[in-house]
């Protein structure tokens, strides 16, 4: 009903109130959504290498506040009584150069070595200039008195073509390509400048496939030993091949490394040929694909958990439970290291009880403070707490076997770093064939280096018929 003076009627006012109430409800819902969105963006903005899985290279340029370090009272530099270090003289130098005075300082007469009454010694360590040398191999035909003509065989390191580059030069090129991450064109230039051998970029690029074929038998044994081992580190990261992105997987130990390409799935991890038959403890970052190996026991990376707990403490500064759980894990790690150093099979029971109770109590309190939300998606804090509760055996496995099961997956992460370095310095591979060959050779070199063999020596042995093979005892 319309009022006589032009004012809205009661019905119109009631309808307006209802509409305003609806708008208020919508605005409140939108405000809650935007508030949650801002909180999530602020949480992401606050992530760095110390509280997430981000690498240090992804950190912002904001300098962290330096912690005051108490002075030691000593001067900088070498300290009195320090053993120091430097070049020491050798008893048998490779060469001796005698320097005589040209003439007597008194009468001016000539002098020779027979008049020497002593000398001052100084030793210079240097390398000889490298220059390519051409060796002609002649396989002779010899006739016996029985009238039979026999021909000698060429050495295995000599190719079937009339001219070729030898194993030393091939080993140098592969060493530069795979271990020092030198791009193909610069590798060819470097070899030409150092040795005088003007190799082509095509020859340098083709060496990767040759080297991968040569080391294949060593990789087969590495794969078998990894499968039979007690502890295995597994990790994954992205890499680029041409214009596309591919996933890179690694399976490794402190003594062996195996790298390979594959999708970010169980199929990709299976492509390495290790995890499907592995029955030991696999250390990983709790990626879901590793849950597809029920025959293996699992160990969740402690470094990842520490970073997630640090992020939870920053997101919820009024709660003590993230710091309590983080402290318990760190202290258990210290006790596990101490037990391993002392040759003990277990952590001291009284110490273990304190830290285990702190761990489980902190998780329980956290779960009460962060109840499950409706639906499948949960908050990062709830997801972390449920993982710590449901997989506590996998989280704490390092404390059950001190010295045998590691606290972190750093070994796996270190094995992946050379691939990132390769992309930064030399760029990405243009084909899967080239990338697979590079990874095969890198796996061989890393495994050999973990046994104390130099990278150049390892690839040189491969090209000269004495391929390095890992000792079988590693499977014990």
Could you characterize the architecture of this molecule?
The chain has about 475 residues and is α/β, with parallel strands linked by helices. Among the domains are: about 210-300 and about 410-475, Nucleotidyltransferase, domain 5 (2-Layer Sandwich); about 300-400, no CATH class. About 45% of the residues lie in helices and about 10% in strands. The chain contains 15 helices and seven strands. It has helices at about 10-45, 165-180, 185-195, 200-215, 215-230, 265-270, 300-315, 320-340, 350-370, 380-390, 390-395, 395-400, 410-425, 430-450, 455-465, and strands spanning about 140-145, 150, 230-240, 245-250, 255-260, 280-285, 295-300. It has a five-stranded mixed beta sheet. Strand 1 (about 140-145) and strand 2 form a beta hairpin. Helix 2 packs across helix 15 (about 455-465), helix 4 (about 200-215) packs across helix 14 and helix 7 packs antiparallel against helix 8 (about 320-340). The longest helix is centred in the N-terminal third of the chain and has 36 residues, at about 10-45. The protein is elongated and about 130 Å long. About 25% of the residues are buried. The mean pLDDT is about 90.
Secondary-structure map:
Blueprint lengths: L9 H36 L95 E3 L5 E3 L15 H13 L4 H12 L5 H14 L1 H13 L2 E11 L2 E9 L4 E6 L3 H5 L10 E4 L12 E4 L1 H14 L5 H21 L7 H21 L10 H11 L1 H4 L1 H4 L9 H17 L5 H19 L4 H9 L13
Helix pairs in contact: 2-3, 2-4, 2-15, 4-14, 5-14, 7-8, 8-9, 9-10
Overview features:
single chain, 476 residues, alpha/beta, Nucleotidyltransferase, domain 5, five-stranded mixed sheet, two-stranded antiparallel sheet, 15 helices, 7 strands, DUF6444, Znf_dom_IS66, Transposase
